[in-house]
Design brief:
By secondary structure, this protein is mostly helical. It has 4 helices and 2 strands, in the order ααααββ. The protein starts with 7 loop residues before the first helix and ends in an 8-residue tail after the last strand. It comes from Pseudanabaena catenata USMAC16.
């Protein structure tokens, strides 16, 4: 098998020349190749986690880092602390 892309006949000849004890490994490898081919065909379009959350922090404000303490102070109740729900801070 001298060419870079072997023909079907060349592959059959190589398989015919394999020792008997190599067949179980060959069958396993062929099963893997079939699995890989099916997985590639059925793979869903790749949705990157980072791309899916990229817009979550979108804000109209240009730079909130200068106001971080002010923002936190307005959201934290001095007695009860921070709460997820605004109605709990009464």
């Amino acid at each position: 098998m001298n060419s870079l892309t072997p023909t079907r006949q060349q592959i059959i000849e190589v398989i015919d020349n394999l020792p008997e004890d190599a067949f179980s490994e060959l069958v396993s490898f062929i099963g893997y190749l079939r699995y890989k081919a099916v997985e590639t065909k059925t793979a869903q379009p790749h949705n990157s986690f980072l791309l899916s959350i990229a817009g979550l922090g979108a804000s109209n404000e240009k730079d909130v880092s200068e106001r971080d303490e002010e923002i936190l102070a307005s959201e934290v109740n001095p007695i009860r602390g921070w709460s997820l729900h605004a109605d709990e801070q009464g």
